[in-house]
Amino acid sequence: MALLSPQLQRFLSAKLTRDSASRSPPRAAAAAAAARPRSRCCSAIAIDGPSSLAEASGVRWGYASVQGPREEMEDGVVVRPDGLDGFSFAAVFDGHGGFSSAKFLRDELFKECVMYLQGGLVLSKQDTNSIQEALRGAFANADAKLVNWLETTEEEDESGSTATAIFLGSDKVFIAHVGDSRVVLSRSGKTEVLTNPHRPYGNSKVSLNEIRRIREAGGWVSNGRICGDISVSRAFGDIRYKTKKKEMLQKGVEEGRWSEKFISRIQFNGDLVIASPDIYQVVLGSDAEFIVLASDGLWDYMNSSDAIEFVRNQLRQHGDVQLASEALAEAALDRRSQDNITIVIADLGRTDWRNLPVQRPNAVYEFGQAFATVGLVSLGIWMSSLLS
């Protein structure tokens, strides 16, 4: 664990959690890494991550987890450069209500994917229907195991977790997505957002579909939250919205959140929160540079284009994907992120960052922007003179 600045030593007691199912090997050059200059960070948090992991195909991995101002670290991360017949695996888990569900998935989801994907053979055959069926089966089985564990554990545990996993091959990436983390691709510096968040609010097609599904299952959405409580509509665990819905209603009565008369009218027809993944397939080409997978602790405070530009500038400066991951986490903290932040970056090895030409601004676009700005200012001055 490397602290961002000497002033952060007193925060070591706020333990950062960064775990991998494979227990990645320690840094090969720890002394050199320790000597690297760290960029400034305004927040008192430690960052932990491996040295850049590499695989035979030339992909280099970096990842970092930051606790942020939260009292607990509820994110988890797994990076497996091998083990799936030529495909790499990386996943980010964003827990809520405690870390136990994210920890369970960190330890178990990869195993389920390996089993259902037959060690990667299903991916290698690249039959889209077979891949989708396998990934949905893996996610469903992982959720069933987690729900059973939550129901049988001695201590009451109502935690849950999102999960977004990527399966990276030489020419394609498959994504299985549950929750509100995000995957973004840089293609010659242009931003491609590859996933949509599962949230019960907003006017996007995905959000409207989620709201409709929740209502059809007998639930309701209040202030952008399912039953006024949870703001993500797909997740693992969360037994109070799956097998313990009646208990959830009764607890709400006891807490004064709603009345007996209200719950007498509720008729559930299904789970309010589900772990069924959206599955995406994206073709990579020579112009595909890197992929960023991160929890919403980044995306709620930095848009996708800014993140891509930031990482690209980092790689142009030093080419170190691990340092870029850590710097991106620091940048989110500088923007006052109030959440845990977990970031995985896969540099696809197709770009010579040291010799990448500097991108020239579009002169016509810049002139148009300047002209529009001058026009708006002039209009404002003219209107002010009329009113005075």
From TrEMBL:
SMART domains (alphabetical): PP2C_SIG, PP2Cc
Major place of residence: membrane
Transmembrane annotation, as ranges: none
Cofactor: Mn(2+); Mg(2+)
Listed EC numbers: 3.1.3.16
PPM-type phosphatase domain location: 60-348
Any one of the GO CC terms: membrane
UniProt-recorded Gene Ontology molecular function terms: magnesium ion binding; manganese ion binding; protein serine/threonine phosphatase activity
Keywords: Hydrolase, Magnesium, Manganese, Membrane, Metal-binding, Protein phosphatase, Transmembrane, Transmembrane helix
Gene Ontology biological process terms, A to Z: photosynthetic electron transport chain; photosystem stoichiometry adjustment; signal transduction
Subcellular location: Membrane
CDD domains, per database record: PP2Cc
EC category: hydrolase
Pfam name, any one: PP2C
The keyword Transmembrane is assigned to this record: yes
Membrane topology: Single-pass membrane protein
Family of the protein in this entry: Belongs to the PP2C family.
Name the record gives this protein: protein-serine/threonine phosphatase
